[in-house]
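Repro case for the chain-ordering regression, as requested:
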Amino acid sequence: MTIREGIKADLPQVLKLIKELAAYEKAADQVDNTVEMMVQDGFGDNPIFGFYVAVNDKDKIVGTSIYYYRYSTWKGKRLYLEDIVVTESERGSGIGKLLFDQTIKKGVEENCSGMVWQVLDWNEQAINFYKKYYSAHLDGEWINCSISIEQMRAIVS
Amino acid sequence: MTIREGIKADLPQVLKLIKELAAYEKAADQVDNTVEMMVQDGFGDNPIFGFYVAVNDKDKIVGTSIYYYRYSTWKGKRLYLEDIVVTESERGSGIGKLLFDQTIKKGVEENCSGMVWQVLDWNEQAINFYKKYYSAHLDGEWINCSISIEQMRAIVS
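-- result from build under test --
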């Protein structure tokens, strides 16, 4: 198993993993992202995310961690872990921890003030992992809010 | 009242507003940010946030909206509204809506796929505002997780 930085050619397999996670999170229909969009967003003039991949001895990508930088008015620059996925057949073999640790390393190198992410309140397995290995601080007091681009266009028109 | 893009010289007043909001959110002790950090993060080689200010007829900043771009593996590039603050004495006069609308306009111009933000589950006034004027989608199923830079350093060392 190798953990390395992601390259453009990895994106089709990475998007498959993103969809696998979305299905697990009961939101498969929410993924509008495409490989073309990811090429633009990750490898354009001004990349807005980065990622690591876990590659097995058959050169197949079995896990990924996708991050970007967020800005906290309380804490400054932070690393945001957007997704961490290990394909179902490879779970429980320590790959998730390798990816998580690699992402933490990136945050330290980039002078972030901390790392943040979100977890679904019913995902006990993930919550236990974050508590056991990372003594993560969990805060369930915040609600996610969103409006779509269609709503936004209607407001500014 | 004028809404305009923020400049470096606004940052001391903007940080005061950030602290005012943090106090309202019962987290005044959580603000480690400084004007120097904000200058670096907002006006360095690679700015990681932008902001608007509401200025009254005495040239005082009475409100601010602070945003950055986040990356969603489901939706691509999104505008994240990190903070929206109107100083207490000026609340209820429509300044919040002007700032919110201006931020939405920015998201449309920058080809975002939507706008996202968070609200505390007990902040009914804000929740009602988001529902009434923006028909925002609210999702309370996610938990915020974080680790500090001290924890990160201990893990990678």
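Ordering looks correct now. Chain B has a mean pLDDT of 95.
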